[in-house]
Write a structure and sequence with these properties.
The chain is mainly alpha-helical. It is built from 22 helices and no strands.
Length: 435
């Protein structure tokens, strides 16, 4: 719904009930079973969708179906879902071709032993930006971090903290990350524009993170030099996708080209049998099913919430407290962070808050690439620090640590939030526009 339509609609707090029901069920199940993944998110969202259908008896069931069909069929939603699937195909193909292992080993091979923890962070950054997945990065690098810790005598917590930090760097910036895809499509901007705006905001945090890891390990004994085997040919598909996305080539062209190149490399190096090329692509696409279906269901819920006046209610509430463009940006950041902490999934958080952030940014003149950056940054901040998030739980499981032992060394997510807040504080204020 655009701003002109909002002017004629009255806000309705009760319309937000489906979202509230999801949060209560999801958080409640996590607290009761002490596992925030005991209830699949899709189940919670289906319950929320059912609640939305029982609301507002003024609309018939058929009329509600038309509302959600229009919402789910929005151009940005459809494009986002297709990109998810294309990114999955690339991820499956490049991983099967040995690209992930070679990318990790290439980075570790060229870094000096004396700065091995800084190196772990930088390699994690490169791998996560290339792969587009923080979970995949942690899974690939956690065993290596454990080996480096054992070899050097460095604390395991600081080694795995560097991996988690780098993983969140790429999760936030990667062109093929589901969070980036969701952020740019809900805000209506180009990936390359969002990347550039995002990169220069978080670059100070990355630099300070390197300094902190260096300072924390400067007195530690040097690890023994390890030989890491890699094939540069297997890394090329990542570079093609990264460079192609940065220079502005259509994301579908980039992902399809990367997938085809990965398959060619995989067959040429013997990592993929010719008969398996469709299987590895299918496995990658399948890995994106959950977030694709969740995004579709959330789009249906949001369309009904909007139709009932829920979005307008939030806008009226926010408009009463926000007077400037800077305030609008802080509002978007806070909303993204809170929803991520509630859902423990940064992509889901962006899909939920994206439409609201779009309305806020339109009303207060916030550049779409800035609002997309804020959504992605602050959900990544939350996801990199909440002890019940998949990233920290995975890192803890793979290393035998607890999430609370890792959090103090996850410097980057902490610094990312601080640097962005400082950026917003020093930014020149612009007055609220009339809506």
């Amino acid at each position: 719904m655009n701003t002109e339509q909002n002017q004629g609609q009255k806000g309705n707090a009760a319309a937000l009930l489906p979202i509230g029901v999801f949060l209560v069920i999801f958080i409640g199940a996590g607290c009761i079973f002490q596992d925030f993944y005991s209830m699949p998110a899709i189940v919670g969202f289906l319950i929320a969708l059912a609640v939305a259908f029982f609301q507002n008896r003024k609309l018939s069931f058929d009329e509600k179906i038309k509302v959600i069909s229009k919402g789910a069929g929005d151009e940005n939603i459809v494009t986002m879902l297709l990109i998810f699937l294309a990114a999955g195909a690339f991820s499956g193909a490049v991983s099967a071709a040995g690209g992930a292992a070679s990318a990790v080993n290439l980075g570790l091979s060229i870094l000096p032993v004396r700065i091995i923890v800084v190196g772990l962070f930088l390699v994690s950054c490169f791998v996560s930006v290339s792969m587009g997945t923080s979970m995949g990065t942690i899974a690939a690098l956690a065993p290596i971090a454990a080996g480096i810790s054992e070899n050097s005598g460095l604390a395991l917590a600081i080694c795995i903290g560097a991996v988690v930090s780098g993983a969140m760097f790429g999760d936030n910036l990667s062109m093929i990350s589901d969070t980036t895809i969701a952020a740019v499509k809900t805000q209506g901007c180009e990936m390359k524009d969002k990347f550039r705006a995002n990169f220069f905001i978080v670059l100070p945090a990355a630099i300070i993170t390197c300094i902190l890891y260096f300072a924390a390990t400067i007195d530690s004994p040097a690890a023994h030099k390890t030989v890491y085997e890699y094939q540069f040919l297997q890394v090329i598909p990542y570079l093609v996708v990264l460079i192609g996305a940065l220079i502005g080539i259509n994301v579908f062209v980039v992902l399809i080209s990367g997938t085809v190149l990965s398959l060619v490399v995989g067959v040429a190096t013997g990592e993929i049998a010719a008969a398996e090329i469709f299987t590895v692509m299918g496995d990658g696409v399948t890995s994106m099913y959950d977030i694709t279906v969740i995004s579709l269901i959330v789009a249906c819920i949001v369309s009904l919430v909007r139709e009932y006046g829920g979005i307008q209610y939030l806008l009226e509430l926010i408009h009463g407290k926000i007077k400037t463009e800077k305030g609008a940006q802080l509002g978007i950041a806070s909303l993204a962070l809170m929803v991520d902490m509630a859902t423990a999934n940064n992509t889901v958080a962006i899909v939920i808050t994206g439409p609201i952030a779009k309305e806020i940014s339109t009303s207060f003149g916030v550049d779409p690439k800035r609002s997309a950056s804020l959504l992605d940054i602050f959900t990544s901040v939350g996801q990199g620090l909440i002890p019940y998030g998949a990233q920290l739980l995975s890192a803890a499981t793979l290393t035998g640590l607890t999430p609370f032992a890792i959090i103090p060394y996850a410097f980057y997510p902490i610094l990312m939030g601080i640097t962005v807040l400082l950026f917003l504080v020093v930014q020149k204020n612009r007055p609220k526009e009339n809506i």
